[in-house]
Each structure stands twice: as structure tokens, then as C-alpha cells.
Specification:
By secondary structure, this protein is an all-alpha fold. Helix content is 65%, strand content 0%. Helix 3 runs antiparallel to helix 4, helix 4 runs antiparallel to helix 5 and helix 6 crosses helix 8. The longest helix is centred in the C-terminal third of the chain and has 26 residues. The chain is extended and about 80 Å long. The two termini are 31 Å apart.
Length: 273
């Protein structure tokens, strides 16, 4: 734009604001700053799109995706100390939000993370939070706590029985993109030797990690239950919202299959939806 013939003919070229904008956009330091911002936010946006998506429950992948994003951010800097302030901000924002016993338990129970990182067993934080989660879920049943922690969890960690089957291992080792893996289905297929842990894992791994779905549902209610239609019966209102919400999901899915999952600049006005 600023090297074009059109720019040289405009009155803005000699104005104070025009000169300031041209100096900014043609500055190497400006583009270095843009590059720096992208090297951080590109990885964080991937996590946000995973959490905000509607393809599958995201709780199973949240901590793993965030850990990978932090690692990618660290690698994008030539000096690790330059990444430290940014990683510190991420950790501060995560504290009290993404570090509950449930988050850590779900991270541990996703085989695509656990079996690809053998050091997880030695991570005191992860193991303590998993045990805290078991105590929270079964507060008065000490026998159940003991069975899960001292028996069934060890079978999972040591690949006992079906966990050690070649097809079970292949299921998570052959996946290129970790969130293409179905951990709930995996536990359903191979967790039969640990029925209590299996039930617990399938419930946890089926959870969403964001309220986005609820927000979208409320938006549908607002669009249908207007001042002119405030006499709708509850059952009819629920049916209309159900049809509208699922119709939107079907349209999104078909569009994604046709156009892919990329967000183009021409679709910027649709980004909120």
C-alpha cells in the first residue's frame, strides 16, 4: 500500500497522521513485533478453538493441548528466558481455573498423553490431584477409593490385561493429531478389567471444558422467545430451540466438510458464530 502509486498521489502522504502510519507499517521493528505476537497467539488460538469447538468433548485434551502450546511458544523464541514472562502469564491465568483435581485426573486418564509421557507417573502434582479427585467422587466409600487407587489405577499404568493388547496400544500410537483420538471409546473397548476406573474415566473424558455450548443455546432461546412470542408454551419453546440448535450444528458440519476448518479473512464477520 505505502509503496504504491495511489498512495503517492493522496493528500494523506503529507499529513501528520499519514506520515505516522507509513512510518509504523514500513518499520522493521513493527513487523518483528507482529511476528512475535503471532509466535505466541497462534499456539494459544489452537487451544481456544479446541475448547470452543463442537466436534467432541474437549476436557480430555485441554491440559495436554495447553502443555503443547507452552512448549511450542518456548521453542519459537531463540532464547528461553524471553519466553519466561509469557509462560508466567499463562500459568497465572490458568491458576484456579485449569488446575482442579478434575483437570489433572482427566489428563492422567487420557492414554494418548499418559503413555507418551512416562514421567507423568513421577509427577507429584498430577498424582496428588488424581487421588484428591477420587476422594471427592467417593467421599465416604473408602473401599472404592482403595480399589481404584491401589488396584485398578496400577493395572492401567502397567498396561495389564486389555490395556496391553497391541490393538489398544496402536489406537493411540498411530494418531498424528491427538484430538482425533477418541479416549471414551478407547476406555469402553479396553477398560473392562478395571470397571470402576473405566466408569470414572468415561464420565470425565466425556465432559466439555467450556460453557460455549450453553451460551449458544441461550442465544437460540433469545432468538425464539421474543416479546412477540412470549406466550409460547415451555414444551413448544424447547422443541423449537432443539430443532434450531441442531439445524445450525448440521449446517456447520456440512460447511466444515466442504470448506475445511480454516477461518478465512472473508469470513471475519462470521467469526463470532
Amino acid at each position: 500500500m505505502f509503496t504504491s502509486e495511489e498512495w503517492s498521489k493522496t493528500k494523506l502522504l503529507s499529513s501528520v497522521k499519514g506520515k505516522a502510519v507509513e512510518a509504523t507499517v514500513t518499520s522493521i521493528s513493527f513487523w518483528n513485533g507482529i511476528s512475535l505476537a503471532l509466535s505466541v497467539f497462534t499456539h494459544l488460538v489452537k487451544v481456544l478453538r479446541l475448547v470452543d469447538g463442537e466436534d467432541k468433548p474437549s476436557m480430555a485434551f485441554l491440559l495436554g493441548a495447553l502443555k503443547q502450546a507452552k512448549e511450542d511458544i518456548r521453542k519459537s523464541f531463540k532464547k528461553e528466558e524471553n519466553a519466561t514472562p509469557i509462560l508466567k502469564i499463562i500459568d497465572e491465568k490458568s491458576k484456579g481455573r485449569l488446575d482442579s483435581p478434575l483437570h489433572y485426573a482427566t489428563y492422567l486418564l487420557n492414554p494418548i498423553f499418559y503413555f507418551k509421557d512416562s514421567s507423568m507417573s513421577n509427577d507429584t502434582k498430577i498424582m496428588n490431584e488424581f487421588l484428591n479427585c477420587v476422594e471427592i467422587i467417593f467421599p465416604t466409600n473408602e473401599n472404592m477409593q482403595s480399589t481404584i487407587a491401589n488396584n485398578e489405577l496400577l493395572k492401567y499404568k502397567n498396561k495389564f490385561g486389555n490395556f496391553g493388547r497391541k490393538m489398544a496400544i496402536t489406537a493411540y500410537e498411530k494418531v498424528d493429531v491427538y484430538h482425533d483420538f477418541d479416549p471414551v471409546g478407547w476406555w469402553s473397548n479396553y477398560g473392562g478389567d478395571t470397571p470402576n476406573l473405566q466408569k470414572m474415566a468415561m464420565r470425565f473424558l466425556s465432559l466439555a471444558s467450556s460453557s460455549s455450548g450453553c451460551e449458544r443455546n441461550w442465544s437460540q432461546f433469545e432468538g425464539i422467545h421474543t416479546k412477540k412470542r412470549n406466550r409460547l408454551e415451555t414444551s413448544r419453546l424447547n422443541d423449537l430451540v432443539y430443532v434450531k440448535f441442531n439445524a445450525n450444528l448440521m449446517n456447520k458440519k456440512s460447511k466444515r466438510e466442504m470448506d475445511g476448518d480454516s477461518l478465512l479473512s472473508s469470513q471475519a464477520s462470521e467469526a463470532q458464530g
